[in-house]
Specification:
The chain has 3 helices and 4 strands. A hairpin with a 2-residue loop joins strand 3 and strand 4. It has 84 residues and is an alpha+beta fold. The protein has a single domain, classed as Glutaredoxin (3-Layer(aba) Sandwich), CATH 3.40.30.10. The longest helix has 13 residues. 39% of the residues lie in helices and 20% in strands. The two termini are 16 Å apart.
Length: 84
Amino acid sequence: MKHVTLYALSTCPWCMKAKRFFTKKKIPFECLDYDLVSDKEQERIMEVVNQHGGTGEFPFVIIGKDGINGYDPDEYAKLLGIDK
């Protein structure tokens, strides 16, 4: 299984949907709530997001080496090789 990292905002409804998608599909994922971490960690997160083609919108998901802007369950499933 590819490693999944989810960068989210703690109050964002689309971020919550992304968290539910991975939880419901029993896909292990690392989640960092951007708005709840230190300024230094936010800078690090934005560097990682930018390196993966991110635009600064949340949620931002990295599956393996691929970055996905926004909530896109079809793309998540495709990259993971699972049914939506």
